[in-house]
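Contributing new records

If you add data, match the layout below exactly. Sequence lines come first and carry their own label; structure lines follow with theirs. Keep one chain per record. Anything else will be rejected by the validation script.
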Amino acid sequence: MLTSGFRKQLLLLLFLAPAWGQPKLDLGLVSRIKTEAYDHSKVMDHLSWLSDVYGPRLTASREFFQAADWAAGRLREIGLSNVHLEPWGPFGRSWSAEQWSVEMVEPRYAPLNATPLAWTAGTNGPVTGETILAPLPATRDLKKAREEFAAYRKEWTGKLRGKFVMLRAPKIPGEQTRPQFSRYTDAELADIAKVSEHAAKISGKLADLKFPEDPDELRKFMASLPESVFDEMFDVRIALATERNRFFLDEGVLGILTRDDRSHDGTTNAEQAGSHKSADPLAPPTFVITAEQYNRMARIMEKKTPVRVRVSLKAQASDADVNSANIVGEIPGGKKADEVVMIGAHFDSWHAGTGATDNGAGSAVMIEVMRILKTLNVSMDRTVRIGLWSGEEEGLFGSEAYVKQHFGDAKTMKLLPDHAKLSGYFNLDNGSGKIRGVYLQGNDAMRPLFEAWLAPFRDEGATTITIKNTGGTDHLSFDAVGLPGFQFIQDPLDYGSVTHHSSMDTYDHAVASDLMEASAVIAAVVYYAANSPEMLPRKELPKARD
């Protein structure tokens, strides 16, 4: 017997499909996809290999390429064609941390929970020295940051040699008023779906930006910034960090100890210490320490009691820049095999944890999508291609290189022939939360298509379609050259509060049922996109950036 809800769902599908020239929506196939995704899932096995065995996967590191070889092997095992690692670059130095420890040895012994920042130099064995609190002011105003560092350099020149510099002022973590694990409420999803108030575009000049202090307002402000501003902010911050590192190297410091405002409850959040380019020097041995332990040392020093630490870091770094690579494979299409539907996720990670939720989860789901489609042997007119990207964490480098090589250059808008052959790209990169809908990225013509494609998953929570843009991940590389590129809306879980770039980014924080559902949703979306009578609708081509 058909339930009332199912009859409504079926009517929605039947009404929407003819109106938009879509293929007949086969609910029987959706049921087969769900059965394969839920009852025979391999997604957590993919994720365990990527995180437990091969994580972390810092771009261009030895661990990254070992993981990439495994992923390519898994795609071949599934039965994909044209599986290969596609080089791009040069990226920068390869860097791997092989062993590290940080210990307070005076006035009391205590092992410290610390993580080295990437592209920092090793210590050539254990090194012991006294700490000195020389806090550099933290500011979001990058113009002000240059002025503050100039004053800092003047104040501390000649005072840091032979010391471990504690670079941040102590700060007691604020009261945790937000839940560390959450799912979107209906009200929150309604707010995401709501059209933003129209306002004048924010100036693209980084020097003119005024950053709000309130965390909620700052989050909204950051979401409103153009991607070009993010790129400039990243470049400026890396340049400032490189300038700072040169100063510390010239001063002869033993190392740098710092904390991260995102760290709490024994976690560390660690990214890079400065430039990853071989033309720039490696940073001095630099570690982020848990806020609680960092604050303890600072309080001891306030009592005029010396603190001494013993630090050891064994790290391997290449002398020259090396290439990185993306992992690519495909299921050949039928009568429209020269046209392509792409799915993807970034494969690289930072190194404090094992890169499970950022973004082993997205990579595992996309591998699982290809397994489901191949196992069910569904007929698809267009070729379906997977791209697992490197260099996302450092600036979307891998996907940008792929788009430039295959489709067009976002700076000049010089397009290649295959630009006309890519129907669309679907991305997953917001932790392991279940799919709740999709960001249209300003492409309103896609709304009726997603409404039809997601209808069989409404009872699983995939209900929200918003015209809004979302940033920070690889669909932007496709959108930048006018190709339909989409990121799915996902439940936040503990991604932003605990796991993002942290030592807690591990397999245990991935939710299996959510990843199974995501695999089913994307497999169905890909099937319909691959069999649509027409290519997916596109927005107007963007203007060249140059």
